[in-house]
Design goal:
This protein has 299 residues and is α/β, with parallel strands linked by helices. It has one domain: 3-Layer(aba) Sandwich (Rossmann fold). Helices cover 28% and strands 23% of the residues. It contains nine helices and 14 strands. The strands form four sheets. A seven-stranded mixed β-sheet has the order 3-2-1-4-5-14-10, with helices on both faces. A three-stranded antiparallel β-sheet has the order 11-13-12, with no helix packed on it. A two-stranded antiparallel ribbon has the order 6-7. Helix 5 links the parallel strand 2 (77-82) and strand 3. Helix 7 packs across helix 8 (219-228). The relative contact order is 0.14.
């Protein structure tokens, strides 16, 4: 993993520790349906993930466990992992409150230490990673290796993320017309050291722990890292909607998603499924001389 000149983990952890209490009360994280036994993921994930009943799911960077518990409520056995102690404490309390402690276990750990914290290689049907997760990680190749480490043969990664082409813009750099302006180059390789007191879930909040370190990961870098880790890309989708108000000008859409007010002139999100092939399939491809890491992309 590349060395960084700042203590990026500690800065980011303090920032996310502070966000936990804010997000527990935020409308976009409404826990009412979950507490009433009818929790659902957002429409993008619901349409793409497929049935999860009886599946073992590892949810990396699970925050305070809302989506982990929705998956458990839908019949999965879930392990959620996050580096914020406050988030993990909240997740465990909510799980106990709604009677899902036996189906959802929460582990305090940095993503890069996950193989030590969860000693279950090749044990999960699905690794689930969604929404604003990758920008906090400096080494995307190591992340992909960790995903592959935990997947069973035939298991898959489900990833849904903000689109990196949209993330080069920000309201903090807005022009006179109020539209988001250019914030950081798409191919920027250095860490982004930021001091931003805003919170995406509550525009009235002013964070005290506002310093963070983030990274831009172009789409090609993410896909190539997964292929190099031995996963096969099954499909890659781009979306004109995203589950949070990425920019102030976005409008409410169905199911808690936000979209451009007129033409969808830039993708806001992407999602993909990448599978870990079976040993038999790998041996077959080695015999016929085809690289098993390369899958077909389809809609």
């Amino acid at each position: 993993m590349p060395e960084q000149s700042e203590d990026w983990r500690n800065l980011n952890r303090l920032n996310w520790d502070e966000r936990v209490a804010i997000h527990l009360d935020a409308d976009i994280y409404d826990l009412t349906p979950l507490r009433e036994g009818r929790g659902r993921l957002n429409p993008i994930e619901e349409a793409e993930l497929g049935p999860v009943s009886s599946k073992r799911i590892l949810h990396l960077q699970c925050h305070f466990g809302r989506d982990s518990l929705i998956l458990a409520q839908q019949g999965a056995e879930v392990v959620g992992l996050d580096f914020s102690e406050r988030a993990i404490d909240a997740a465990r309390k909510i799980a106990a409150e709604i009677g899902l402690s036996s189906q959802a276990r929460f582990v305090l750990s940095d993503v890069y230490d996950a193989p030590i914290a969860i000693e279950e290689p090749g044990a999960f049907d699905i690794v689930f990673v969604t929404w604003g997760a990758l920008c906090w990680l400096p080494d995307i190749r190591r992340w992909a290796e960790i995903v592959a480490h935990f997947l069973k043969e035939g298991g898959f990664l489900y990833l849904a993320e903000g689109h990196p082409t949209a993330l080069v813009f920000d309201d903090a750099a807005a022009g006179p017309d109020g539209k988001p302006g250019r914030f950081a180059p798409y191919f920027h390789r250095e860490p982004l050291r930021m001091n931003d007191p805003r919170d995406y879930a509550d525009p009235a909040v002013h964070l005290k722990n506002s310093r963070t370190v983030e990274w831009i990961h172009p789409l090609g870098e993410v896909v190539t890292a997964m292929l190099d880790a031995g996963l096969r890309l099954r499909w890659l989708h781009e979306h004109d909607r995203v589950p949070w108000r990425m920019f102030a000008e976005l409008e409410d859409s169905d199911g808690g998603l936000y979209r451009w007010p007129a033409e969808p002139w830039l993708p806001l999100a992407y999602s993909l499924r990448a599978e870990k092939p079976s040993s038999d399939l790998v041996r077959h491809h080695q015999v016929v001389g085809r690289d098993p890491r390369v899958g077909r992309a389809c809609r």
